[in-house]
Amino acid sequence: MSASQELQWKGYAIHDTAKWNEFKVIDFKPKPAGDYDIDIKVEFCGVCGSDVHTITGGWGAPNLPLIVGHEIVGTVVRVGPKVEGFKVGDRAGVGAQICSCLKCSRCDNDDEQYCEQPVHTYNSFYPECGTLSQGGYATAVRAHERFVFPIPDALKLEDAASMLCAGLTMYSPLVRHGAGPGKRVGIIGLGGLGHFGVMFAKALGSEVVVFSHSARKQDDAFKLGATKFVITSEPGYDESLKGSLDLIISTTDSAAAVQWETLIPLLKVHGRFIMVGIPDEDLAAFNATVFFGNGGLFGGSHIGSKKEAIEMLKLAAEKQIKPWIEVLPMKEASRAVTNVKEGKIKYRHVLKVDI
């Protein structure tokens, strides 16, 4: 019997979106093991804002009972017969996606996160068997090799955990939109996503400007590597920055914080405004002329590819990037998601498996 068969597949699940922070331990079965599947015994799982949006029903009614968590790290305990990149005992991680069609042009060109047939790490049904995917607030996870990432020895597992969603969500748009030496990058919001944005933008060689609604996190921004801190609630905050930024990445999940009329003019000609935060509410309407003054471009970004994940983890190891995390036992998942919803964490919770 393999180590993965000996595992008891258990997890902390939500049963009711009205009781979104009440977790109960359940037994569950993963989907049938495939030739390219890898089983990971979970040791740590980061707590993501996506978890909160899902269990509260903010992004729509989830499939219940549901185990969330998609910043998963641990040890490989089983590999399928056609897996080539991993062996039992390897340190490995999984982010927000565990499979795709694997054959479309997007999958063939390192854009598998944009596949039109994704299987998300939780709250997603496998098309071939109908099994509901369950996340990393659990003892184990099963994922296709394409969506499993090797964790460098130089990184602690608990530090690597939140990089696999929050970190990758920031790293991908930074590198795809030209962050590097000589570039000036704006980060809107200094939270779980934003603090990674500051660290990775700096590590890539960019100057970093942080936008926040108050001065409360100013000292943190500079400690993380920002060169300028802007308080958006102050009248005229934008005047000295017009036409000065190559790239702005918005991490906020508040639709009201996306102030088109003042933020877009801060871009250089053909500069880019990229959304990675996903508010529950619709964004405010705007007049299209706001983009004409500088030819500004607006877009979004979704997690990142395996290629980018490997590059990001290598950069983190080389530059000794350490996220600001607080580790809690997994039985305190309720406290963790409540803190995330209420903005009481600097800047990521990571849960240590205790079942």
Automatic annotation (TrEMBL):
Cofactor: Zn(2+)
BP terms from Gene Ontology: alcohol metabolic process
Annotated GO MF terms: alcohol dehydrogenase (NADP+) activity; zinc ion binding
Entries under SMART domains matching the protein: PKS_ER
Reaction(s) this enzyme catalyzes, per UniProt: a primary alcohol + NADP(+) = an aldehyde + NADPH + H(+)
Family annotation (InterPro entries): ADH-like_C, ADH-like_N, ADH_Zn_CS, CAD-like, D-isomer_DH_CS1, ER, GroES-like_sf, NAD(P)-bd_dom_sf
Keywords assigned by UniProt, alphabetized: Metal-binding, NADP, Oxidoreductase, Phosphoprotein, Zinc
Alphabetized PROSITE patterns for the sequence: ADH_ZINC, D_2_HYDROXYACID_DH_1
Pfam families: ADH_N (PF08240), ADH_zinc_N (PF00107)
Domain Enoyl reductase (ER): 13-351
Self-association and partners: Homodimer.
Superkingdom: Eukaryota
Family according to the record: Belongs to the zinc-containing alcohol dehydrogenase family.
Annotated protein name in UniProt: alcohol dehydrogenase (NADP(+))
Enzyme Commission code(s) on record: 1.1.1.2
